[in-house]
Design goal:
The longest helix has 19 residues. It is built from one helix and ten strands. The protein starts with a helix and ends with a strand. The chain is mainly beta and about 240 residues long. It has one domain: Porin (Beta Barrel), CATH 2.40.160.
Amino acid sequence: MKHLVIILTLLFSVNTLTAQLFTKEKVANSVDNIDQKFLSWGYFIGFNQYDFKFDYEEDLKDILVDNTFGFHLGLIGDMRINDYLNLRLEPGVFFTTRNLQYDESYFAGMEFNDADLLREVKSTYVHVPLLLKASTKRINNFKPFIVGGVSMALNLSSNEDNPDDNASGQFRMTKNTYFYEIGFGIDFYLLYFKFTPSIRGVFAMNDEIVRDEDPNSPWTGNVAKMQTRGIFINFTFQ
């Protein structure tokens, strides 16, 4: 279903852009005034790919991360500072899955099976970024921009309070994660709304792993720090 939504959105947007984007004159309608409003609103949909960055206590083989594409959606609140700067709040819900593959060397001297080498990490984030958007001057019907800021995410699937750990098959993460973000995009001024595709990188600032009770756990014992990083591709409508 999520792939169908993305495909339909892209098809609709490409068709509309082809008809309107490269006209010699600006689109003359109410969307011209949206950049002059002190407050404006919108929504976004898109897809994401999350990864983990690991730092290790000892020089063993890396924990491999198998990334998959996830889906997200949310709302936009935009506050105009001047013609080139906007402050934005973009709360959304993000769904993603990452699979961790451990090397057999982590289990040296221990009994293990194939299931012990794999941990599936499903995450549902309530992600709330505060962003500063810096735009160029509008050129006909489009306007490039860069965006950056900080964010906080609540991981509803963290298992942080679960008393069971990896010895019982439960991989645990912290509930709260703090990020910095940076990206770029282009505002396209269409007949009835402003459409914005953008890409953004997000990078966690805190350690997210919840360690097992056993300090020599093969799943967490060698991990000095585990931090999320990811890429968001957004399609915004205002």
